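Board notes (copied after class):
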Amino acid sequence: MKARDPRLRGLYLVTDARLAPDEHLRSAVEAALNGGARIVQYRDKSDDAARRRAQALALRELCSRHGALFLVNDDVALAQACGADGVHLGREDMPIETARVRLGEAAIIGVSCYDQLSLALDAQARGADYVAFGAFFPSGVKPEAVRAPVALLSRAREVLQLPICAIGGITAENGAPLIRHGADMLAVISAVLARENVARAAHEIHQLFVNPLQDASR
């Protein structure tokens, strides 16, 4: 089993083409990084390969300058082409073992486990670097997402050696209990990118990791 990566902690920003379209994507991500985001996942489901590659390269360079991790959603080939730190895989994506061969031992591979601890245990056994559970709250980005109970984080912390990411409707107001129950990372889209002041929104969630006993927004 791989050693636990200490970089996998904190605010985890997931990009969204609707909330941060092309002309605002780089500036929005930079604002989030200035506010305290430690991990950025580039998520874009369009078919424009050249555009996606250019955006991924720009965000990878930006994250590198800020000392943050840069991951690509689903697309192992794009992660490899842009020199990303790793990839995040869902249920229908490339197997962990294949992604590991393509990206190498140093790559970070995260896996969506939804509301199922069994999937997380399997991902850990197969060499994942972190697992993600959710949605913990109603999500405007994925309203159909299965809901996961907060107690799942406590159970996962007892049996997993991997960092745990929580996702789904997370805000500065509701994120602290997730950290207290075992989440190492809070993956956020709307609570940062939909805000007028992206840097401030990111800072509010970043502060939850500084003092998880209270809401950062207070």
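Comment from the instructor: The mean pLDDT is 95. The chain has one domain: 10-210.
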